[in-house]
Structure to design on (704 residues):
């Protein structure tokens, strides 16, 4: 029994071959066979390609979301194609033509909104690989039956098969220009000359071997809401509510092997805007205890503007979950102990940040700079800095003070002597620091080490020029220890 | 009492008397003597041999609270803990500085051999002293953190007791710097640091497990 090979109508292509009605088969059997064969619709949009990877991914996702309304399994086939299964939705939409016109109607405005031309290369066949090849070749055909695939694919150039350059050269040199030429060769010989991968590719096209696709899944999103029976003002009760929501969230994360980095809790009030509590995590986590601790820390210090009617939890950004690995013997090697201690301190730092604010927790940054104010700075914990900026070595060999005042403090002068708590005696110096003329914050200073009667060692400087409105004078800049 | 008196009859017995567990001598470090036999009272080397000798732990006590009382900031009190900071940070231990008088200067710490990557500075709002005490307690309770240096604005005996408890549960060494002597403090070690132009005088006001009230003079490191 041979079947039909249809051209998709309304498209500017000529018909390949049309067999009128095939010899009658029993109706029930025919329908059952048709139901069994899947039908994969492929579209190819070469105009999507752009150098901007971010925009490219966004476009791909948008199209995959759109195709989701036509089929349950959609796959993005890089670089420029999409495949989706339509057999299961064929009855619902009322035939392949309806699906095609629906697709056209939805896709064209989208492409227009990106300023792209609206030509769509499309094809449908029983295997995803064959549909892709046909669509990429711009054939615009519909192949219903697997046995017709050979003739439908036969005219395509072999260069369309995704393969390394030397393989296509080899094919070309062997005089194999079209897939038809390959059909004629014995399988075993092909396998020997071009390898198992190549033969596998052909088999997948013809449906001899199953070709699994990776279905597109829209990014996960979690939102859950809890409504109280009465307006709540007690944070303890709020915490219980939050705990329940966090437990739901952690269940969601566990099922999908995900971890969250940012959890937003919204406390809803009657006539007011909701109070937002954001739980920030430096390391993706799904530990219920840790999230609860953070929520508790935030709620402890929270002053409620109004009674709370409900809580909503929302997570939009997820990371894959990585379990931490512990040594079975309980003996940590020297190398593994450093990251594990980092992993232990993070919950504490997040808890501190949750209560005191992000800016209150910082690490120390040592920079290779000559200006004392720039050489050492605090860096808010969690923010990152370019590796080139940070250095482990101090820029200078001369001793620096352990405390640097945020602003230089003018020193009192009496009868030619300098005072800070008591009269100062210079111990060493001067060390001239003269730099920064290019940044508009030029400094020209002579630094000395001085000591007062209380035994304080001070780092003082004499400004050699006026800077930032300060007079030329003596200033205290640091205290040694 | 009878057996001690009986032993005193012969001159040879003085040594055996000293070894006798019935006798307790006030001038000795009880803990130091016992720690040679069993190692359950660890300490950190302070980096100053003279100071090590007058502390029962042979240095700073571990999992305890230490008070350093100093008349003013910047008179050399940080010099006392710099060797400890160096040792712990190079071992990859975490060190928290809670509400320091101003931001520590990273190049100076690097010059002192301290791995600044292991230091976290927590500076809560000074308007609410409770925040600093809360941060200290949380940090001391956390086992991942080896040392907490803190400059509290407000401190009472009750706070010190709570912090001492947190330090022993979290097995963390806490060092409090403050100006005023708090009576009946439950800190394990209380030191007063006075400095003059050449030297740093460290006086032991209280050390748990010892009745010695030593005072050592350490040379100032001149920049």
């Amino acid at each position: 029994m041979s079947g039909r090979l249809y051209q998709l109508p309304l498209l500017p292509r000529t018909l390949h071959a049309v067999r009128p009605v095939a010899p009658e088969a029993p109706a029930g059997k025919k329908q059952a066979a048709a139901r069994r064969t899947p039908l994969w619709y492929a579209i190819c949009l070469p105009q999507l390609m752009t150098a901007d990877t971010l925009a490219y991914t966004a476009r791909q996702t948008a199209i995959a979301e759109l195709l989701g309304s036509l089929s349950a399994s959609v796959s993005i086939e890089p670089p420029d194609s999409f495949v989706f299964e339509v057999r299961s939705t064929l009855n619902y939409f009322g035939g392949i033509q309806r699906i095609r016109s629906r697709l056209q109607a939805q896709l064209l405005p989208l492409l227009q909104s990106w300023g792209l031309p609206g030509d769509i290369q499309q094809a449908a066949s029983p295997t995803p690989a064959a549909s892709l090849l046909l669509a990429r070749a711009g054939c615009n055909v519909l192949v219903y039956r697997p046995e017709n695939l050979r003739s439908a694919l036969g005219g395509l150039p072999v260069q369309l098969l995704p393969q390394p350059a030397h393989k296509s050269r080899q094919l070309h040199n062997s005089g194999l220009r079209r897939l038809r030429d390959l059909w004629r060769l014995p399988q075993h010989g092909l396998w020997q000359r071009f390898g198992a991968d190549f033969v596998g590719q052909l088999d997948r096209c013809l449906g001899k071997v199953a070709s699994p696709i990776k279905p597109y899944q829209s990014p996960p999103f979690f939102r859950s809401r809890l409504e109280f029976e009465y307006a709540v003002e007690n944070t303890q009760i709020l915490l219980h509510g939050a705990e329940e929501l966090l437990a739901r969230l952690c269940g969601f994360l566990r099922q999908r092997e995900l971890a969250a980095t940012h959890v937003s809790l919204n406390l809803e009030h009657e006539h007011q805007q909701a109070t937002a509590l954001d739980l920030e995590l430096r390391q993706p986590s799904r530990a219920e205890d840790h999230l609860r601790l953070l929520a508790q820390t935030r709620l402890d210090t929270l002053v409620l503007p109004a009674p709370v009617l409900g809580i909503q939890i929302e997570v939009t950004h997820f990371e894959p979950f990585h379990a931490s690995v512990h040594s079975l013997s309980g003996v940590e090697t020297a190398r593994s102990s450093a990251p594990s201690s980092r992993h232990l301190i993070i919950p504490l730092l997040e808890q501190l940040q949750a209560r005191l604010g992000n800016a209150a927790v910082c690490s120390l940054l040592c920079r290779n700079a000559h200006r004392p104010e720039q050489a050492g700075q605090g860096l808010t914990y969690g923010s990152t800095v370019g590796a080139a900026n940070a250095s482990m070595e101090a820029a200078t060999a001369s001793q620096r003070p352990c405390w640097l005042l945020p602003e230089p403090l003018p020193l009192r002068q009496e009868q030619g002597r300098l005072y800070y708590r008591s009269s100062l005696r210079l111990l060493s110096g001067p060390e001239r620091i003269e730099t920064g003329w290019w940044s508009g914050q030029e400094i020209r200073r002579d630094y000395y080490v001085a000591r007062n009667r209380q035994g304080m060692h001070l780092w003082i400087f004499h400004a050699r020029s006026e800077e930032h409105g300060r007079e030329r004078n003596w200033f205290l800049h640091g205290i040694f220890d | 009492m009878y057996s001690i008196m009986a032993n005193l009859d012969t001159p040879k017995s003085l040594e055996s008397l000293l070894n006798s567990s019935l006798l307790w001598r006030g001038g000795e470090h009880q803990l130091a003597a016992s720690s040679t036999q069993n190692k359950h009272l660890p300490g950190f080397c302070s980096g100053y041999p003279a100071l090590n000798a007058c502390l029962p732990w042979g240095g700073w006590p571990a999992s305890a609270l230490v008070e350093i009382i100093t008349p003013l900031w910047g008179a050399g009190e940080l010099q006392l803990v710099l060797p400890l900071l160096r040792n712990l940070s190079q071992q990859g231990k975490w060190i928290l500085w809670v509400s320091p008088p101003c931001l520590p200067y990273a190049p100076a710490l690097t010059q002192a051999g301290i791995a600044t990557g292991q230091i976290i500075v927590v500076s809560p709002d000074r308007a609410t002293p409770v925040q600093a005490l809360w941060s200290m307690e949380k940090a001391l309770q956390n086992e991942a953190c080896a040392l907490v240096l803190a400059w509290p604005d407000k401190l009472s005996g009750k706070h010190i007791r709570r912090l001492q408890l947190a330090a022993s549960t979290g097995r963390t060494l806490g060092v409090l710097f403050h100006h005023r002597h708090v009576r009946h403090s439950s800190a394990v070690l209380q030191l007063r640091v006075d400095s003059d132009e050449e030297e740093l005088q460290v006086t032991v006001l209280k050390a748990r497990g010892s009745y010695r009230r030593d005072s050592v003079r350490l040379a100032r490191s001149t920049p």
About this structure: The longest strand of chain B covers residues 199-207. Residues 31-40 of chain B have pLDDT under 50 and may be disordered.
